[in-house]
Amino acid sequence: MSIITEKTESDSWARLTRVTGVTGLITVVLLFGPIIAISTLGEPLFVATAEQARTFFVNGNVAWAQTATAVTALAGIGFVWFVVGFALVLGRAEGTPPWRSAIALVSGVLVAGYLLVDASWEAASFGAADLDPAVASYAFDVGNLGFANAWLSLASFAVCCGWVVLATGVLGRWLGWWAIVSGVGLALCRFFWTAEIWFAPYGLFWIWMIIVCVLLLRSRPRIYQRAQAGIPG
Prior knowledge:
mainly alpha
Protein backbone atom coordinates (compact mmCIF):
# COMPACT_ATOMS: atom_id res chain seq x y z
CA MET A 1 0.00 0.00 0.00
CA SER A 2 2.85 2.37 0.84
CA ILE A 3 4.48 1.64 -2.52
CA ILE A 4 1.27 2.65 -4.31
CA THR A 5 1.05 5.79 -2.20
CA GLU A 6 4.66 6.72 -2.95
CA LYS A 7 4.13 6.15 -6.67
CA THR A 8 1.00 8.28 -6.65
CA GLU A 9 2.85 11.05 -4.82
CA SER A 10 5.78 10.80 -7.22
CA ASP A 11 3.42 11.04 -10.20
CA SER A 12 1.77 14.11 -8.65
CA TRP A 13 5.09 15.88 -8.23
CA ALA A 14 6.16 14.90 -11.75
CA ARG A 15 2.91 16.39 -13.04
CA LEU A 16 3.53 19.55 -11.06
CA THR A 17 6.99 20.06 -12.54
CA ARG A 18 5.63 19.44 -16.03
CA VAL A 19 2.80 21.94 -15.62
CA THR A 20 5.19 24.47 -14.10
CA GLY A 21 7.62 24.16 -17.00
CA VAL A 22 4.89 24.44 -19.63
CA THR A 23 3.16 27.42 -18.03
CA GLY A 24 6.49 29.18 -17.55
CA LEU A 25 7.36 28.91 -21.23
CA ILE A 26 3.86 29.96 -22.28
CA THR A 27 4.14 32.97 -19.96
CA VAL A 28 7.35 34.12 -21.63
CA VAL A 29 5.70 33.94 -25.05
CA LEU A 30 2.53 35.70 -23.88
CA LEU A 31 4.57 38.45 -22.22
CA PHE A 32 7.25 39.24 -24.76
CA GLY A 33 5.22 38.69 -27.93
CA PRO A 34 2.96 41.69 -27.18
CA ILE A 35 5.84 43.73 -25.75
CA ILE A 36 7.85 43.34 -28.95
CA ALA A 37 4.78 44.15 -31.06
CA ILE A 38 3.92 47.27 -29.03
CA SER A 39 7.53 48.50 -29.24
CA THR A 40 7.03 48.89 -33.00
CA LEU A 41 4.64 51.77 -32.25
CA GLY A 42 7.64 53.93 -31.39
CA GLU A 43 7.92 53.42 -27.65
CA PRO A 44 10.22 56.18 -26.32
CA LEU A 45 12.80 55.90 -23.56
CA PHE A 46 11.96 56.42 -19.89
CA VAL A 47 13.00 60.09 -20.19
CA ALA A 48 10.58 60.85 -23.03
CA THR A 49 9.06 64.30 -23.43
CA ALA A 50 5.35 64.89 -22.95
CA GLU A 51 4.77 65.11 -26.69
CA GLN A 52 6.69 61.87 -27.34
CA ALA A 53 4.58 60.12 -24.70
CA ARG A 54 1.35 61.43 -26.24
CA THR A 55 2.41 60.34 -29.74
CA PHE A 56 3.16 56.86 -28.44
CA PHE A 57 -0.25 56.56 -26.81
CA VAL A 58 -2.00 57.87 -29.91
CA ASN A 59 -0.21 55.24 -32.00
CA GLY A 60 -1.34 52.63 -29.49
CA ASN A 61 -5.02 53.51 -29.92
CA VAL A 62 -5.58 50.66 -32.39
CA ALA A 63 -7.43 47.40 -31.94
CA TRP A 64 -4.44 45.07 -32.17
CA ALA A 65 -2.48 47.08 -29.59
CA GLN A 66 -5.39 46.94 -27.15
CA THR A 67 -5.55 43.19 -27.68
CA ALA A 68 -1.80 42.90 -27.08
CA THR A 69 -2.09 44.64 -23.72
CA ALA A 70 -4.83 42.20 -22.74
CA VAL A 71 -2.47 39.33 -23.58
CA THR A 72 0.17 40.75 -21.24
CA ALA A 73 -2.42 40.65 -18.46
CA LEU A 74 -3.02 37.00 -19.32
CA ALA A 75 0.74 36.49 -19.00
CA GLY A 76 0.38 37.71 -15.41
CA ILE A 77 -1.91 34.77 -14.67
CA GLY A 78 0.54 32.41 -16.33
CA PHE A 79 3.33 33.80 -14.17
CA VAL A 80 1.25 33.04 -11.06
CA TRP A 81 0.99 29.41 -12.17
CA PHE A 82 4.75 29.22 -12.72
CA VAL A 83 5.61 30.92 -9.44
CA VAL A 84 3.31 28.71 -7.35
CA GLY A 85 4.53 25.51 -8.99
CA PHE A 86 8.20 26.41 -8.77
CA ALA A 87 7.88 27.58 -5.18
CA LEU A 88 6.34 24.21 -4.27
CA VAL A 89 9.19 22.32 -5.96
CA LEU A 90 11.77 24.47 -4.19
CA GLY A 91 9.90 24.19 -0.90
CA ARG A 92 10.07 20.41 -1.16
CA ALA A 93 13.82 20.65 -1.63
CA GLU A 94 14.30 23.29 1.04
CA GLY A 95 12.64 21.32 3.82
CA THR A 96 10.97 22.69 6.92
CA PRO A 97 10.43 25.58 7.30
CA PRO A 98 10.42 26.50 3.59
CA TRP A 99 10.67 30.22 4.31
CA ARG A 100 12.79 31.19 1.31
CA SER A 101 10.39 29.42 -1.02
CA ALA A 102 7.49 31.21 0.66
CA ILE A 103 9.14 34.60 0.15
CA ALA A 104 9.78 33.69 -3.48
CA LEU A 105 6.10 32.82 -3.85
CA VAL A 106 4.85 36.13 -2.45
CA SER A 107 7.43 38.12 -4.42
CA GLY A 108 6.46 36.43 -7.66
CA VAL A 109 2.76 37.05 -7.06
CA LEU A 110 3.54 40.75 -6.57
CA VAL A 111 5.13 40.81 -10.03
CA ALA A 112 2.01 39.22 -11.48
CA GLY A 113 -0.06 41.79 -9.62
CA TYR A 114 1.81 44.56 -11.42
CA LEU A 115 0.98 43.00 -14.79
CA LEU A 116 -2.68 42.78 -13.86
CA VAL A 117 -3.25 46.03 -11.96
CA ASP A 118 -1.02 48.68 -13.57
CA ALA A 119 -3.21 49.87 -16.46
CA SER A 120 -1.92 53.45 -16.81
CA TRP A 121 -0.60 52.92 -20.35
CA GLU A 122 -3.72 51.05 -21.43
CA ALA A 123 -5.97 53.80 -20.12
CA ALA A 124 -3.90 56.52 -21.80
CA SER A 125 -3.94 54.69 -25.15
CA PHE A 126 -7.67 54.00 -24.91
CA GLY A 127 -8.45 57.72 -24.59
CA ALA A 128 -5.52 59.01 -26.60
CA ALA A 129 -7.60 61.07 -29.02
CA ASP A 130 -8.38 63.65 -26.32
CA LEU A 131 -5.23 63.14 -24.26
CA ASP A 132 -3.42 66.23 -23.01
CA PRO A 133 0.41 66.01 -23.32
CA ALA A 134 0.85 66.66 -19.59
CA VAL A 135 -1.53 63.84 -18.72
CA ALA A 136 0.22 61.60 -21.25
CA SER A 137 3.55 62.35 -19.59
CA TYR A 138 2.12 61.53 -16.18
CA ALA A 139 0.61 58.24 -17.37
CA PHE A 140 3.87 57.33 -19.10
CA ASP A 141 5.92 58.02 -15.96
CA VAL A 142 3.48 56.15 -13.70
CA GLY A 143 3.73 53.09 -15.93
CA ASN A 144 7.51 53.21 -16.06
CA LEU A 145 7.92 53.76 -12.31
CA GLY A 146 5.54 50.89 -11.62
CA PHE A 147 7.67 48.74 -13.91
CA ALA A 148 10.83 49.83 -12.08
CA ASN A 149 9.26 49.01 -8.71
CA ALA A 150 8.33 45.58 -10.05
CA TRP A 151 12.06 44.94 -10.51
CA LEU A 152 12.37 44.79 -6.73
CA SER A 153 9.76 42.06 -6.45
CA LEU A 154 11.37 40.22 -9.34
CA ALA A 155 14.75 40.62 -7.62
CA SER A 156 13.40 39.17 -4.38
CA PHE A 157 11.93 36.22 -6.28
CA ALA A 158 15.18 35.56 -8.14
CA VAL A 159 17.41 35.85 -5.05
CA CYS A 160 15.23 33.54 -2.95
CA CYS A 161 15.01 30.96 -5.73
CA GLY A 162 18.74 31.14 -6.31
CA TRP A 163 19.41 30.81 -2.59
CA VAL A 164 17.37 27.60 -2.37
CA VAL A 165 18.98 26.19 -5.50
CA LEU A 166 22.44 26.93 -4.10
CA ALA A 167 21.59 25.36 -0.75
CA THR A 168 20.03 22.20 -2.19
CA GLY A 169 21.58 21.86 -5.65
CA VAL A 170 18.18 20.75 -6.90
CA LEU A 171 18.67 22.31 -10.36
CA GLY A 172 22.42 22.85 -10.42
CA ARG A 173 24.27 25.48 -8.44
CA TRP A 174 25.22 27.48 -11.52
CA LEU A 175 21.54 28.32 -11.95
CA GLY A 176 21.46 29.41 -8.33
CA TRP A 177 24.27 31.91 -8.89
CA TRP A 178 22.65 33.05 -12.14
CA ALA A 179 19.39 33.85 -10.34
CA ILE A 180 21.14 35.70 -7.52
CA VAL A 181 23.25 37.80 -9.90
CA SER A 182 20.20 38.81 -11.94
CA GLY A 183 18.23 39.55 -8.76
CA VAL A 184 20.92 41.73 -7.22
CA GLY A 185 21.34 43.51 -10.56
CA LEU A 186 17.62 44.26 -10.78
CA ALA A 187 17.55 45.63 -7.23
CA LEU A 188 20.51 47.92 -7.91
CA CYS A 189 19.04 49.13 -11.21
CA ARG A 190 15.98 50.43 -9.39
CA PHE A 191 18.16 53.25 -8.01
CA PHE A 192 19.24 54.19 -11.54
CA TRP A 193 15.94 53.33 -13.22
CA THR A 194 16.28 55.76 -16.14
CA ALA A 195 19.60 54.23 -17.24
CA GLU A 196 19.34 51.54 -19.91
CA ILE A 197 21.62 49.19 -17.96
CA TRP A 198 18.50 47.53 -16.51
CA PHE A 199 18.21 45.55 -19.74
CA ALA A 200 21.12 43.31 -18.66
CA PRO A 201 19.80 41.84 -15.38
CA TYR A 202 16.23 41.88 -16.70
CA GLY A 203 17.24 39.84 -19.73
CA LEU A 204 19.32 37.52 -17.56
CA PHE A 205 16.32 36.76 -15.38
CA TRP A 206 14.05 35.74 -18.25
CA ILE A 207 16.75 33.62 -19.89
CA TRP A 208 17.21 31.93 -16.50
CA MET A 209 13.47 31.27 -16.30
CA ILE A 210 13.44 29.70 -19.77
CA ILE A 211 16.32 27.38 -18.82
CA VAL A 212 14.57 26.43 -15.57
CA CYS A 213 11.36 25.60 -17.44
CA VAL A 214 13.22 23.41 -19.93
CA LEU A 215 14.92 21.56 -17.08
CA LEU A 216 11.59 21.05 -15.34
CA LEU A 217 10.24 19.47 -18.50
CA ARG A 218 13.28 17.33 -19.26
CA SER A 219 14.44 16.28 -15.79
CA ARG A 220 11.33 16.26 -13.64
CA PRO A 221 11.81 12.73 -12.18
CA ARG A 222 15.36 13.51 -11.09
CA ILE A 223 14.35 16.90 -9.73
CA TYR A 224 11.52 15.38 -7.72
CA GLN A 225 13.66 12.56 -6.32
CA ARG A 226 16.32 14.97 -5.16
CA ALA A 227 13.78 17.37 -3.76
CA GLN A 228 12.07 14.53 -1.92
CA ALA A 229 15.28 13.30 -0.36
CA GLY A 230 16.96 16.69 -0.03
CA ILE A 231 19.94 15.46 -2.09
CA PRO A 232 22.20 18.21 -3.50
CA GLY A 233 22.72 18.30 -7.28
